[in-house]
Amino acid sequence: MVAGMGILTGRVALAQSAVELRYLFYNETDGRTQVKSPTLLLHHELSEALGQIDLLLAHDSVSGASPTGGYPTLSVTTTTSASGNRTTNAAGKIPMVQYMDERNAQGFTWGRRIGAHLPTVDISHSVEKDYTSQGFGLSDAWTMAQGRGTLHYGLSLANDTVAPVTSTLRLPKKTRGYALGWTWILGAEDLIDFSASRMNLSGYLDEPYLIVTVGNLTQGEHRPDTRVRDAFLVKHAHYFEWDGALKTSYRYYTDDWGIKAHTLDFTYDQHLDESWILTPRLRAYSQRAASFYGARFDAAQPFMSADYRLSAFSSLLLGCAVAVDLKPGLTLSLGASYQFQSGRDQVTPLKTAASGGLPAVYAGPTTSAADVSATSVTLGLKWKY
Hints:
Shape: globular
CATH class: Mainly Beta
Mean pLDDT: 92
Largest sheet: 16 strands, antiparallel, barrel
CATH architecture: Beta Barrel
Low-confidence stretches: 1-13
Strand content: over 45%
Structural class: mainly beta
Distance between the termini: 26 Å
Helix content: under 10%
Number of helices: 0
Order of helices and strands: EEEEEEEEEEEEEEEEEEEEEE
CATH topology: Porin
Radius of gyration: 24 Å
Number of strands: 22
């Protein structure tokens, strides 16, 4: 019996060293966020005694416009970013601001099989101009039941520093994560996995450049300084006799900020011949808003945020990838996806601000900062040696 996902390809997957180059291009509509990300991944089998190592080197170049959290109005507005970039927003549109950033990330993993266990150590580090993250993780995969079952569990620690360019402050943020899961081979053609995770966040959890509208004024947003995030994931994979595999997953997410989310994902691998694999994908996502989210507040609250990522929205992603073996050990892959997202908390642009005790007047078509579409393209070249 072949343990793990190798059973679903009809081929026995042996441990093998490999180096891979990947490039991601991500682009949102209306001139919003654009990401260019080259990545180098190295997996090297040292020996049975020394184990295996993984190395990740990545560089992200991010630019474009991002919603400020401001309320839309039926007049042309100008916003200025923390770095001084000015953006003109059309009437009735969500206020946006231009920004640019770069991120360099490194990751190192070491693991060694000890009997039925595969303990692993992870170290990660990333730097942006206003954010530094250092992470550490320990995990283990314990194979049992004559190889049919695997218990996997682990913990992770991250100590981050937020350093807004608008101040000289260095604000701490901590994350503590715990995960537990069980993988079971149901038979020659089916594999199932159940897992759960919890993340405890504490420290500075605000977004330093976002604002909220309170009455006629704006001010910086403010969130709780703790957050507990829970996720439950079920994955099932089925191998078909025509050399295809359908992988289905469902994820339920909840946190103490009031967000609840559902993700349903379908990925299908079809071997066209010995060299080609076609992989279409469909993913649906829906979430409920945080308890302190609002596009506009009549009066100040202890916690307030207009960040669309905390709002109620749904999205659908359609994608497809193809991989081809150029020669033994050398694989080229190309993938693309299109995602359209719609906010469920639509707002009507403000025409006249409240003054002298008179109520505000709204007009125009509704809109949401969560209304956005995105296209991504990935290119990869992998060499097994």
